[in-house]
Amino acid sequence: MEFRILGSVEVHDERTGLRMVPGGAKQRALLGALIAKANRPVRARQLIDELWVQTPPANKANALQAHIRRLRRLLPPSRPGEPQREWITTCAAGYALRLGGAATDAGRFRRAALEGRSLLDRDPEQAARLLRRALACWRGPVLEGASLDMCAGEVAQLEEARLVALEALYEACLRTRRHHEITSELTELTVRHPLRERFYDLLMVALCRCGRQADALSVYDRARARLARELGIEPGPVLRGRLRAVLDHDSALYPPDFAGHSERLAVATEPLLGARDPGALTDAAAAGGGDRALHVEIASMRRHLDRLTRDHQALLQRFDQFTARPAGSR
């Protein structure tokens, strides 16, 4: 048996494959609150106050008891050979859902997410699999359409845990060279959660590994503008450090054996004409290249030097733009 709140409220009977959904909005909200606070008593007075805000019945206590009875009838009985049990028990403070050997989708999500995060450094492939399995528990917003104010704490904790799991998943994807697969997903997450700097940070790394440094700089620009507009603050030290790494073509952005990066570094750091062994050019000419080969190599070096100069000037201008304080920020 699994009680589910990561989406609409429902109960899944693993024996039969049946999915049980409470019929009315109040019953869904009541069961959702009991699941969110499973194995803990929920005060009857608090349930009454939140279930009947606008049109309270003449006898609210009796109305609550009637809803509890309907929920008890909805939930399946004990398995054959097992002792009789009552899922929803009455206690001095009110009511409680006693899980016993049953589970919740929230608990399943938390366990898989915790295990996945613990494997991030040792086995990022397995970490990614576990984190995807954890996130697959989510069918929609927590307690979708049936959330009471008394569950606000549990809802906030679960939503935060989901975002942390997403961050860990995309970190695992970067560690397993799947940067091409996650740029669109991370872009969407920066739109949905525009004040969460970690998503911008991960997106900048993914874009750099795709050879899209200019887009990575634009992501920082977008993050900085949004933070200044919404909160009047600058990006934090992690995101600012990522900007500096992109501008400097920092090798730390890439894994040590990242395909293509060593070639780019070799081009970027290739010695210029004056720093090379003059004998090497003489040998190249004598080997059959002659003056033509020498002129071709010199022209290539000049183009390379011009490109480096232009890139350097562009990066300096871009850095000045990023480090200038936005208008209206505090």
Notable features of this structure?
single chain; 330 residues; alpha+beta; Arc Repressor Mutant, subunit A; 4-stranded mixed beta sheet; 3-stranded antiparallel beta sheet; 59% helix; elongated
Notes on the protein architecture:
The chain is an alpha+beta fold and 330 residues long. It has three domains: 2-103, Winged helix-like DNA-binding domain superfamily/Winged helix DNA-binding domain (Arc Repressor Mutant, subunit A); 179-255, Alpha Horseshoe (Serine Threonine Protein Phosphatase 5, Tetratricopeptide repeat), CATH 1.25.40; 270-323. The chain is built from twelve helices and seven strands. The chain has helices spanning 25-36, 44-51, 60-74, 105-118, 124-135, 152-175, 179-192, 197-209, 213-231, 237-247, 261-268, 278-323; strands at 2-4, 10-13, 18-20, 42-43, 88-90, 94-97, 103-104. The strands form two sheets. Strands 3-2-1-7 form a four-stranded mixed β-sheet. It has a three-stranded antiparallel β-sheet with strand order 4-6-5. A hairpin with a 3-residue loop joins β5 (88-90) and β6. The two termini are 53 Å apart. The model is unreliable at 260-289 (pLDDT under 50).
